[in-house]
Design a protein that fits this description.
The structure is a single chain. With about 325 residues, this protein is of the alpha/beta class. It has 12 helices and 14 strands. The strands form 2 sheets. Strands 3-4-2-1-5-6-7-8 form an 8-stranded mixed beta sheet, with helices on both faces. Strands 11-10-9-12-13-14 form a 6-stranded parallel beta sheet, sandwiched between helices. α8 crosses α11. The relative contact order is 0.13.
Length: about 325
């Protein structure tokens, strides 16, 4: 099977959750012997072609880039896409009669609208709650026609890729307002004797403060260095996001037995399960109390054990089998049009 993934950016240069989720799926296909190429649309995403985990990645050169995968010996049997590339990939798939697969990472109206306009052969939802949300949306807006076939594959996180011995920092990854930077800095002000670690994110307007002596800010960190450079320094991970469809970094942290204090978004509640420690992002007193409690020698071991067990329980093997079988079926059936 030859697969073309049309994406805007890709690891290791771009390390947002959606990109690592996409890579985890694509490298699984490559590991099973399939030919997987990624074509980037951002001009500054890469300068040269490269390979990562068996996946070949090609930089943007011009608008004609996809043509080599549309016909001839190199013709793709399926196009995988997400986010800002969904529209173009859907149009190219229809014009060239190549089935298109949508990876959905959010419940935004723009993303769901392409379930109608793009007529994908397969939709991959990153959580059960997102699939339910899309189904409810479809009943209201397009109840007169069948919904595109969809499966749920939680962003695959291999425990061994992120295991480390926890450190002593209270950490936030991606210092934007939406991810909870204000909560992070407010806690640092309230807890001056505790060490805080802020990791610059791969997207969004970063809020950087240099007026707090107990806060260290480190650069954007590639995924393959997160265990050593971030989780090995972290005792508690903060996830005070206003929106998370899943919360990949929370699961990564749990692989090291790092407890996560989180705002109860639907995605974080699904990913963290009973191991999560939840507090409303607007209730700073609750956040301070939750974090301080995790520094108790009696509380932390139990919370750490629960986190590690939850990470182990999210073993992606079964869902990756479903993903691979679904993609092979899409390629075999071809375009429905």
């Amino acid at each position: 099977m030859r697969v073309l993934a049309m994406l805007h950016a890709y690891p290791p240069a771009h390390n947002a959750g959606a990109e690592w989720a996409a890579h985890s799926l694509l490298r699984e296909l490559a590991a099973r012997g399939h030919n997987v190429d990624v074509l980037l649309s951002q001009q500054d995403a890469a300068t040269d072609a490269y390979e990562i985990d068996g996946v070949s990645v090609y930089p943007y050169r011009g608008k004609a880039d996809p043509s080599r995968w549309m016909r001839g010996d190199g013709r793709a049997q399926a196009i995988v896409t997400h986010l800002e590339n969904t529209a173009r990939a859907s149009v190219l798939g229809e014009l060239n009669r190549i089935p298109v697969v949508h990876l959905l990472h959010n419940t935004f109206e723009k993303s769901k609208s392409w379930l109608v306009k793009g007529s994908p052969s397969l939709v991959v939802y990153n959580t059960a709650w997102m699939k339910a949300d899309a189904e409810a949306w479809w009943r209201v807006h397009r109840g007169d026609r069948p919904m595109p076939w969809g499966i749920t594959v939680h962003p695959p996180v291999a425990v061994e890729d992120y295991q480390a011995t926890p450190g002593d920092r209270i950490t936030l990854i991606n210092l934007t307002v939406e991810k909870g930077a204000k909560v992070f800095y407010a806690l640092a002000e309230r807890m001056p004797r505790r060490k805080f670690l802020g990791v610059i994110g791969g997207y969004g307007q970063q809020i950087i403060r240099d007026d707090l002596p107990n806060v260290e800010i480190v650069p954007h960190t590639p995924g393959d260095r997160m265990a050593k450079d971030v989780y090995a320094r972290t005792r508690v991970l903060l996830a005070p996001s206003s929106y998370e469809s899943y919360g990949r970094v929370a699961v990564e942290a749990m692989c090291s037995g790092i407890p996560v204090v989180a705002h109860p978004t639907a995605g974080l509640m699904e990913s963290l399960g009973e191991a999560g420690i939840f507090a409303d992002r607007d209730d700073l007193d609750a956040w301070e109390a939750a974090v301080k409690r995790l520094f108790s020698p009696k509380v932390y071991p139990q919370a750490s054990k629960a986190a590690a067990a939850r990470a182990a329980g999210l073993d992606p093997a079964a869902e990756l089998d479903v993903w691979a079988a679904a993609m092979e079926g899409v390629a075999k059936r071809g375009s429905p049009r």
